[in-house]
């Protein structure tokens, strides 16, 4: 399979890319900086989500998109940084949505968009999901809610494979 990963140069994305390569897959990685791969199974493509710019060839042959993109939440939460954190996540999804919408011949069957597990309490017995409401009103909860609401727009493309 071929994967497209936004946020593929970050901590989780780097490890995920390595895992997928080791499992025999190939990976396209979206990056805001020009990069060259030393591995034929990894290819980098330029994008700038805040400007809604993406290399249209990044989705050629892609089966699955994994969205990990977004400004780090590990920063001082000034009003400016809060806006940046939310905007970066929504812009990444908007940019991915537009490229899929424009390419009617894409073969993408799934999209996975990471969220923040930090809004859920730790528990070995309770299963938490998107319906859990305990942290309503907190900044992280609002980020997660907006991000998860935005990904729902992709149902247009992935009705049968949307969770």
Would you write up a description of this structure?
With 163 residues, the protein is of the alpha/beta class. It has a single domain (2-161), classed as NAD(P)-binding Rossmann-like Domain (Rossmann fold). The protein has three helices and six strands. It has helices at residues 11-22, 79-102, 139-151, and strands spanning 2-6, 26-31, 42-48, 53-54, 64-67, 110-113. A six-stranded mixed sheet has the order 4-3-2-1-5-6, sandwiched between helices. A hairpin with a 4-residue loop joins strand 3 and strand 4. Helix 2 runs parallel beside helix 3 (139-151). The two termini are 20 Å apart. The model has no long low-confidence stretch (mean pLDDT 90).
Notable traits:
163 residues; alpha/beta; Rossmann fold; 6-stranded mixed sheet; 6 strands
Number of helices: 3
Helix/strand order, N-terminal first: EHEEEEHEH
Q: What separation lies between the terminal Cα atoms?
A: 20 Å
For the record, the count of structural domains works out to 1
Beta-strand share of residues: 15-25%
Secondary structural class: alpha/beta
**Strands ordered across the widest β-sheet:** 4-3-2-1-5-6
- Radius of gyration of CA atoms, rounded to a whole number: 16 Å
Q: Please identify, by name, the CATH architecture.
A: 3-Layer(aba) Sandwich
Kindly state the number of beta strands. 6
Overall average residue pLDDT: 90
**Gross morphology:** globular
| CATH-derived topology | Rossmann fold
The major beta sheet can be summarized as:
6 strands, mixed
For the record, what is the CATH homologous superfamily label? NAD(P)-binding Rossmann-like Domain
Low-confidence stretches: none
- CATH C-level class is Alpha Beta
> How much helical structure, as a percent, in the residues?
25-40%
């Amino acid at each position: 399979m071929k994967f497209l990963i936004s946020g593929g140069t970050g901590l989780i994305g780097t490890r995920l890319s390595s895992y997928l390569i080791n499992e025999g897959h190939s990976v396209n990685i979206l990056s805001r900086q020009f990069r060259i791969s030393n591995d034929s199974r990894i290819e980098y493509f330029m994008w700038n989500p805040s400007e809604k710019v993406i290399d249209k060839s990044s989705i050629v042959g892609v089966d699955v998109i994994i969205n990990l993109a977004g400004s780090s939440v590990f920063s001082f939460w000034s009003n400016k940084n809060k806006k940046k954190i939310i905007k970066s996540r929504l812009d990444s999804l908007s940019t991915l949505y537009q490229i899929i919408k424009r390419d009617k011949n894409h073969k993408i069957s799934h999209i996975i968009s990471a969220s923040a597990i930090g809004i859920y309490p730790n528990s070995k017995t309770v299963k938490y999901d998107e319906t859990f409401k305990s942290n309503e009103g907190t900044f992280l909860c609002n980020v997660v809610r907006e991000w998860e609401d935005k990904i729902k727009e992709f149902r247009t493309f992935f009705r049968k494979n949307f969770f």
